[in-house]
Write a structure and sequence with these properties.
- This protein has helices at about 1-35, 40-50, 60-70, 75-85, 95-100, 100-105, 110-130, 135-145, 160-190, 195-210, 215-230, 235-250, 285-290, 295-305, and strands at about 260-265, 270-275.
- Helix content is about 70%, strand content about 5%.
- By secondary structure, the protein is mainly alpha-helical.
- The longest helix has about 35 residues, at about 1-35.
- A two-stranded antiparallel ribbon has the order 1-2.
Length: about 300
C-alpha cells in the first residue's frame, strides 16, 4: 500500500513537471516570436517569465540581455548576461561568437570585457568537446543522408513498381540505421546536443522517427529524449514528432498534429490532411508548448513542399 502511494505521488509529480515544462515552452515561444518581430520590450517580458521555471536555459539569459541592449538598458543587460556566462552560456562556434554584433559592440566597454571573455572560453570548451566527437557526428550525418535517400516529394507519383523498389531499398537503410543507433545508445548513451551538437542530436532523432517497424524502440528513444529535455539537451520539437509517430503507429490519435497523409488524384498529390488528432480546438496550444509553429503555418509549408500543381 505504501509503495502504491509513492507511485501515485511520483505520477502526479511527473505530470506537474511536464505541465510546468509546457508553460515554460509557451512563454519561450512567445518570447522568440516577439524577438523575431523586433518587439524587444515585449520579448524581454516573456524571457523574464521563462527564468521563473526550472526548465529555463542559459540562452534565455542571452536573449533577455540582447533585448535589454536594444531598448538601451545596458546595466540590466549585463546583469543577465553575467548570470548566463556563469551558468555556461556559449555559442555553437567561435565564428558565431565573433559575428554577434549585438554583444561585440560592447566588447570595448570595461564592465563587459570580463563577461564576454568568459563566454568565449565557454564556447572554446564546447567546440573542443564537439570536435572530439567529430567521428560520431560524421557517422550520424551520413546516416541521416541515407535516411532521406528516397524520402522526398514526388516519390509517391512514380510508377508503382519503381516506387515499391525504391521503398524496399529505403527500408534496408532504415533497418541498418536503427540497429546502429541501438548499439550507440547501449554503449555511449544518446548522441545529445552536448555531445554532437544540434545536427547530431537531430540526426539521431530522425533515425528513431523512422524506426516504424519497432515501436518499442521508438518508445524507448522517446523516454530518453524526455529525460534529455529536462537537461536542455535535445529539441522539444523532436519529442512532439516522435510521440505523434508512435501514437499513429499504434492506431491512436496524435497529440501535436505533426503527422499528415497525402491526398492523391490521378497519381498526383493534390492535398494534405492531418491524421487522426485529439482535441483539434486546443491543438495550437499544445503545439506552441513544444515550440512548434501554429498548425495553419505548418500545413501551408507542407503543402508547398508536397502538393503538385
Amino acid at each position: 500500500m505504501k509503495l502504491l502511494g509513492i507511485n501515485v505521488l511520483l505520477y502526479f509529480y511527473s505530470l506537474a513537471l511536464f505541465s510546468q515544462c509546457g508553460e515554460y515552452l509557451d512563454y519561450k515561444f512567445k518570447a522568440d516570436s516577439c524577438y523575431k518581430k523586433l518587439l524587444f520590450n515585449e520579448a524581454s517580458i516573456y524571457y523574464r517569465k521563462c527564468l521563473n521555471y526550472r526548465e529555463q536555459q542559459r540562452v534565455d539569459y542571452y536573449y533577455l540581455s540582447c533585448c535589454l541592449i536594444r531598448v538601451n538598458k545596458k546595466d540590466s543587460a549585463l546583469y543577465f548576461y553575467k548570470i548566463g556566462a556563469k551558468e555556461g552560456l556559449h555559442y555553437y562556434s567561435l565564428k558565431d561568437f565573433s559575428a554577434d554584433t549585438v554583444i561585440q559592440n560592447n566588447a570595448n566597454l570595461k564592465e563587459w570585457k570580463k563577461t564576454i571573455s568568459i563566454v568565449k572560453r565557454n564556447t572554446e570548451k564546447f567546440v573542443s568537446k564537439i570536435n572530439s566527437n567529430t567521428g560520431l557526428l560524421q557517422t550520424i550525418l551520413e546516416r541521416k543522408n541515407s535516411d532521406q535517400k528516397y524520402r522526398y516529394p514526388g516519390v509517391t507519383t512514380l510508377a508503382a513498381n519503381e516506387k515499391d523498389s525504391l521503398w524496399e531499398i529505403q527500408k534496408l537503410f532504415d533497418k541498418d540505421n536503427q540497429e546502429w543507433l541501438k548499439k550507440e545508445i547501449e554503449q555511449n548513451g544518446w548522441p545529445s546536443i552536448s555531445k554532437v551538437g544540434q545536427d547530431g542530436d537531430n540526426g539521431a532523432w530522425l533515425i528513431a522517427q523512422h524506426s516504424d517497424n519497432d515501436t518499442a524502440f521508438q518508445q524507448y528513444c522517446l523516454t530518453i529524449l524526455k529525460k534529455q529535455l529536462m537537461q536542455h539537451d535535445t529539441n522539444p520539437k523532436n519529442i512532439a514528432y516522435l510521440e505523434d509517430r508512435i501514437l499513429i503507429n499504434s492506431n491512436k490519435e496524435q497529440v501535436y498534429g505533426t503527422q499528415f497523409e497525402e491526398v492523391m488524384k490521378n497519381n498526383k498529390v493534390v492535398d494534405l490532411k492531418l491524421k487522426p488528432t485529439i482535441d483539434i480546438e486546443c491543438l495550437n496550444k499544445r503545439r506552441i508548448s513544444m515550440g512548434l509553429e501554429p498548425i495553419e503555418n505548418y500545413l501551408e509549408f507542407a503543402r508547398k513542399r508536397h502538393v503538385q500543381d
